[in-house]
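can u do me a favor
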């Protein structure tokens, strides 16, 4: 009897250790998944800060805040993850200079259809902008991050500035 008791106790202890070990493995796994998911936000490779922002068919950007460091070379990629044509649900990404009124710019841009809603005389208002894209398309631009501060960005397709806007924070 005593031997059997000891054996079953040993087995039980073994099982407990095993299940504890499993739990730790799972913890480690989910931790590394989380880390991977965060990385695309702020990837710096070869001195270039990679930013990615998506627009959809519901007239929304997936981010309202982007961060870079002053003087960084920035590669910004805009993805349109929707399906609608650019004439219906076009998206671009426009970063405005400090002091430029976003609403006033949005209204002015709406009438610049021939130049994809980037007014011909807007060079003084804009730090950088992508081209206009439709569903399924992707485009990238590179620019140098300006001096530290907060800069507003928007999609200048008519009416989109009301929903598709955010801040580029330069640290
Ligand atoms: Co848009």
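np, heres the sequence
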């Amino acid at each position: 009897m005593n031997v059997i008791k000891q054996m079953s106790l040993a087995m039980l202890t073994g099982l407990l250790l095993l299940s504890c070990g499993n739990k730790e493995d799972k913890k480690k796994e989910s931790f590394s998944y989380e880390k991977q998911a965060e990385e695309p936000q702020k990837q710096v490779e070869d001195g270039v800060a990679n930013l990615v922002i998506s627009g959809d068919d519901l007239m929304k950007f997936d981010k309202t805040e982007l961060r870079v460091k002053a003087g960084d070379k920035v590669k910004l990629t805009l993805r349109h993850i929707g399906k609608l044509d650019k004439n219906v649900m076009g998206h671009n990404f426009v970063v405005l200079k400090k002091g430029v009124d976003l609403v006033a710019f949005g209204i002015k841009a709406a009438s610049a259809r021939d130049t994809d809603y980037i007014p011909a005389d807007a060079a003084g208002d804009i730090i950088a902008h992508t081209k206009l894209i439709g569903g399924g398309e992707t485009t990238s631009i590179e620019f140098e991050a300006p001096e530290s501060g907060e800069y507003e960005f928007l999609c200048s397709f008519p009416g989109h500035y009301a929903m598709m806007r955010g801040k580029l924070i330069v640290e």
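The longest helix spans residues 2-38. hope that helps!!
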